[in-house]
Design a protein that fits this description.
The protein has a domain at 56-115. Helices cover 43% and strands 9% of the residues. It has five helices and three strands; from the N terminus they run ααβαβαβα. Helix 3 (69-77) links the parallel strand 1 and strand 2 (81-84).
Length: 116
């Protein structure tokens, strides 16, 4: 984690605990967990990608790394597609509103049925 992100992440975790969204661990086997995203950094990274490549370049977010509806919707709204490694990810992306031409299905193990 970069040094500038740590204070923001720590503050978000502490706020989530204070609000009761996360509870401190009560034992070594009951670890709290949660996903925290810096949406300013997320948007900045998408903008930097678009600025670094020609305008007609197709950017696609890997669904397997961030399958959350909210993040995928942000990526779609920013003009990014969905990179899918399984038919489940393709279906998920299409259900979220990605157009077929914006879905990259690059699994090397596609069945004829999945391709159709």
């Amino acid at each position: 984690m970069s040094s500038f992100a740590a204070p923001r992440t720590n503050a978000a975790v502490l706020a989530a605990v204070a609000a009761g969204h996360l509870r401190p661990a009560t034992s070594l086997t009951s670890q709290p967990y949660g996903y925290f995203y810096d949406l300013d950094a997320f948007h900045a990274n998408m903008s930097a990608l678009r600025a670094a490549f020609p305008p007609n370049w197709h950017h696609a977010m890997a669904v397997k790394t961030s399958p959350l509806k909210g993040l995928l919707n942000l990526a779609r709204a920013a003009g990014h597609g969905a990179e899918c490694a399984s038919i489940g990810e393709v279906i998920h992306s299409l259900q979220l509103g990605f157009k077929g031409e914006d879905v990259v299905f690059d699994s090397p193990c596609k069945t004829v049925h999945e391709i159709r």
